[in-house]
Amino acid sequence: MKALLCEAYGPIDNLVVKDIPSPVPGPKQLLVEVKAAAVNFPDALMVQGLYQVKPPLPFTPGAEISGIVKTVGAEVKHYKAGDRVIALTSTGGFAEECIVESAKAMPLPTGMDFETGAALVLTYCTSLHGLKDCGHLKAGETLVVLGAAGGVGISAIEIGKAMGARVIAAASSDDKLALCRKVGADETVNYSTENLKDRINELTGGKGADVVYDPVGGPYTEPAVRALAWRGRLLIIGFAAGEIPKIPLNLALLKERSLIGVYWGDSTKHDPTGHLANLHQLHEWFATGRIRPVVSERFPLSAAKDAIASIANRQVKGKIVVLPND
Ligand SMILES: NC(=O)c1ccc[n+]([C@@H]2O[C@H](COP(=O)([O-])OP(=O)(O)OC[C@H]3O[C@@H](n4cnc5c(N)ncnc54)[C@H](OP(=O)(O)O)[C@@H]3O)[C@@H](O)[C@H]2O)c1
């Protein structure tokens, strides 16, 4: 089978597609024919050796897939060949076939296509966990989403709206902001051309935002914190800009603001029941049309490294997917 391989940590352009032997599932694993594999920001960091997880070399990147079960390990009870599944894999997704831990698979919901299935779980679970469990976002509150046209950003807009918030989307181009409006943002801020803090204050009548959802970091975090209302909450999601901001803590004291870390992956181990409830909520919102992942581009396996490069280069809108078996 063909797989994208990272043979040495380094430039994304060094990734290669090669024929390798089909993997054999262990007792609690599934072998899945990959129909779609979503590209996520950590894929780009991982192949460059810049991520906290450094898989042994060579490895195939790709953490989030959908596909059809080909074979199952001896101890697998809930899946059989032919089942359509979504799975989180950490690595291995950008390949024609992928090994999946059966505990990390879930059935592809009825009515959901493979591309949507691959693009749903990581970003939407992160945003629901962040906004509900960590940020305690309430209906009627104002939510500001930074990097709002990116993968987690789009999901935060949709979930914020589904939870009844007024959503202000902030991104770096008018083109990206047009997409944010299309998925439901009430207001937009172009932080390349407008002053983020002043514009949030203007849009909230001077009160400030109740919650800021921040997957970007870098130069955007501090002005966003300065535009938080009394008891406003900053949700620290990630640092796509590459720089971890250092915030003066008097900004928290002065308005009883909270700076809250969000780590969805580990939260599922600490609160598996809460995670299942969140998945149910997402399925219900999908079934009723409240959320709809935006898949903006599709790549064949031969161009998977271009897909990874475009997320590293700030070019992606919503989610992009690799279709290894097309
Ligand atoms: N904490 C968690 O549990 C969790 C879960 C999932 C993801 N994350 C993290 O969330 C972050 C965003 O993930 P994502 O999948 O949404 O990525 P994404 O689709 O690439 O979106 C990130 C956004 O960041 C902005 N950005 C600003 N400076 C950038 C730069 N120098 N390079 C790239 N992007 C830049 C871009 O928007 P503009 O051009 O509009 O500024 C981009 O759309 C990543 O750091 C990821 O690791 C965290």
Automatic annotation (TrEMBL):
GO molecular-function terms, A-Z: oxidoreductase activity
Residues covered by the Enoyl reductase (ER) domain: 10-322
Protein known as: Alcohol dehydrogenase, zinc-binding domain protein
Source superkingdom: Bacteria
One Pfam assignment: ADH_N
CDD domains: QOR1
Species per Swiss-Prot/TrEMBL record: Sulfuritalea hydrogenivorans sk43H
SUPFAM superfamilies noted in UniProt: GroES-like (SSF50129), NAD(P)-binding Rossmann-fold domains (SSF51735)
